[in-house]
Amino acid sequence: MSKGRHHMDMSVIKQLALGGIPPAIAGAILFFALAPRNATTAGDSLHSHGKTFIALVLSFAIVIGTIALAIAVPSFKFASVDNRLPWAICIVLVGTLVAALTPAGKGTLTRILIAAPTLALATAFGLMSLLKNWTIVESVAHIGGAAVAGGLIAWAVAKASTPTQPTDSGPALARTLIPLIGASQLLVLGMSSLKHGQIAGMFAAIAGGAAAAWLVRRSVRLGVGPAMFLWLGAMLITMFGIVLGSAPIARAALYGALVVTSMIFAAIATMGPLGKLSGWKAWTVSIVLPVIPIAAGIAIAALTLEDPSEY
Questions:
Q1: Model-level pTM?
Q2: Where does the pLDDT of residue 94 fall: very low under 50, low under 70, confident under 90, or very high at 90 and above?
């Protein structure tokens, strides 16, 4: 029995490595290449439209490529949730591109008006094969929940991902990364949804790669557009996990709410007096605040272990 368990553990580790390492390396290369050479001249400006477009399309390509490598090659058959998932991520990409590349793309209201229906549409499309068996109340609750989450993410992401100190983007990368790691962990530990946790981990790995690139080139920034794509993408996968994981729906919805709360806390870490902090104080606030909801979710998961789900 221990041999079987050891073999299973090794296969899980191998699977997670396959889903995590390639996007981290690709993300590091991508955002290193896009970063200006000098952090002092980077200021607080984010990517130009051209760089944003490149960052978004290549981030999408990294995720889809890793899904093809680690899970299954995307198909044009839409019979199951798994078939639809890559195309649902494509809907998120299109919505994020529209929000990032419109003339008013930097406006919070514009992002909210685009991100809310984008995440709702992507969730509805992805779960279409299940929706026909749901009551109207269940459908409205889940799709409406996705719309609310999309709007909240659109509000929070610019604050969280924009450096408060023009020459130090490190804390901003940490604020962006922690909710992504949290989504992946709560999918695995809370919803026992290894496959979706692995896919959410791909979004986290790209941000982690950018953070690793920052260690080499301090001018590395994700930018609002790429951060929004990663956050909406991870939230989309979380919406799938809420339905398909093994946790009771109310508890799974709580995990989803905690992921969004982590993103909101990441934004709060930049507001008012907190936004004026620098050095280790900025790092502490940027890490501790978004960690709190994730830690709460992991604690709940530890107290209520579920049977593993094939998803």
A1: 0.91
A2: very high
